[in-house]
Amino acid sequence: MQKMSTAEARKKDAREKIELGGLIVKAGLRYEKRALLLGLLIDAGARIRADVAERTRLSELGAKAFADDA
């Protein structure tokens, strides 16, 4: 398997970051401070690792939000 070139790796990384930023906008959090957003994500990460029911609930909430776009 051929190794990904540096330019391809950078493009892939940039696209992923743009997509993740789009999730922040979709959630209605565009104008929140970065520290708050990071805190939310850290807290959510800890909660979904500790609680399968919470992970399922949040996954369903997100899937519904994506389905509402269609």
Please state the oligomeric state of the protein chains shown: single chain
Number of helices, counting only DSSP H or I runs of 4 residues or more: 3
Percent strand: under 5%
Q: What are the low-pLDDT stretches, counting only 5+ consecutive residues below 50?
A: none
Structural class: mainly alpha
Q: Helical proportion?
A: over 70%
Tell me, briefly, the overall form.
extended
Order of helices and strands: HHH
Please give the radius of gyration in angstroms: 16 Å
Number of strands: 0
Distance between the termini: 37 Å
The overall pLDDT average reads 93
Major sheet description: none
Textual characterization of the structure:
The chain is mostly helical and 70 residues long. Helices cover 80% and strands 0% of the residues. It has helices at 6-26, 34-50, 52-69. The longest helix is centred in the N-terminal third of the chain and has 21 residues, at 6-26. The protein starts with 5 loop residues before the first helix and ends with a helix. The model has no long low-confidence stretch (mean pLDDT 93).
Q: Nutshell version of this structure?
A:
This protein is mainly alpha-helical. It is built from three helices and no strands.
